[in-house]
Design brief:
alpha/beta, 8 helices, 6 strands, globular
């Protein structure tokens, strides 16, 4: 799939970013001292750009790459259990051509879907600071500008919900007062976009049944129905 030049230029800019010293140090530390199961693998250890169909009508927004997932493979939600759960659902609901996402170059393609994150480097304890979020947010804003066909945003978790709200507001779309609150299945119409809330696909949620396959599939089926209205 050919990537439009402006989106390709943004990808290169993301990859070269070093704005957050704490995150730079953390991503590089993770690559230098991997767990035994990844010993000897070459880590990406750079910010992780968005991935998917440039003509997508649905944009999925996550929190940040995992230290030994996207930070290792160089592709968002790739190489960890959260990604396994996510891509299996995208396959079942017709957005992906295969149910697994193992590494860059594995033949995975998304159709009508694009994946991004609020923060592009793995944060310690999965907790970015507000400053780190704000440093990264312009990348999500510009992705929204460049992905001209997007009409639905699926926010995986409260942090992604907040980041999506900020990105949409930065594009001069007025947000309702009070601001819409996150919840699984929550919806908000924000200018030309419909924002859908979904529990994050973290093991903490999927192993405990807080988020099930049926619940996640339901979110993506709802997203498709909204893009086809």
């Amino acid at each position: 799939m050919e990537i439009p030049r402006p989106l390709e230029a943004l990808t290169k800019e993301v990859i070269s970013c070093r704005l957050c010293p704490r995150l730079v140090a953390w991503r590089e530390r993770a690559s230098a001292d991997p767990p035994r199961r990844y010993a000897g693998e070459g880590y990406w250890a750079r910010p992780v750009p968005g991935f998917g169909d440039p003509s997508a009508r649905m944009l999925i927004v996550g929190l940040a790459p995992a230290a030994h997932g996207g930070n290792r493979t160089g592709r968002v939600f790739t190489g960890d259990r959260s990604g396994d759960f996510l891509f299996a659902s995208l396959y079942r609901t017709g957005y992906a051509n295969r149910p697994t996402s193992e590494k860059s170059g594995d033949g995975l393609r998304l159709e009508d879907a694009y994946l991004a994150a609020v923060v592009r480097c793995p944060p310690p304890a999965n907790r970015p600071t507000p400053g780190e979020r704000d440093n990264c947010l312009p990348y999500l804003i510009r992705e929204l500008e460049l992905l001209e066909d997007v009409r639905v945003l699926v926010a995986l978790g409260d942090f992604a919900w907040g980041g999506a709200l900020r990105a949409i507001a930065a594009l001069d779309h007025t947000l309702p007062r009070p601001r819409p609150r996150f919840g699984h299945g929550a919806e908000a119409q924000l200018g030309p976009y419909r924002l859908l809330g979904c529990y994050h696909t973290s093991q903490q949620n999927t192993f405990t049944g807080v988020l099930t396959e049926e619940m996640l599939d339901g979110i993506f089926r709802r997203a498709r129905s909204l893009t086809e209205e």
